[in-house]
């Protein structure tokens, strides 16, 4: 997987004078069944979140309120996305390092995940992640 597989997904937006509504359906609006949802909030100014990659897990990240940046790195290049609309989601494939920063005051980041929490799926050390990427590039299985 590469950051070229990652993309902004436009979610349905039902406009109504009483307030707008957006909904998300697994395997319809996102390319995976949704197994887990969590959200980040009250992130202090200047703080960073993320700083990891996943072997198998896929995610959709949404700025439910406020804004923040997501920096993606596949070991070959980096892309920065600025999220600030609740009807846009950033799809992140497996084997992509992610860091979140530049949180605005009062921002809420919701994450939809393709798998249940499993610590063994994480790369929390960037050098180990890069070693795994190199193995994949050379056609070797990652263990």
From TrEMBL:
In terms of CDD domains, this protein maps to: cupin_QdtA-like
Sorted alphabetically, which Pfam families does this protein's record hold? FdtA
Q: Where is the Sugar 3,4-ketoisomerase QdtA cupin domain?
A: 5-133
Name the UniProt record assigns to this protein: WxcM-like domain-containing protein
Q: Which organism is it from?
A: Calothrix parietina FACHB-288
Q: What is the lineage of its organism?
A: Bacteria, Bacillati, Cyanobacteriota, Cyanophyceae, Nostocales
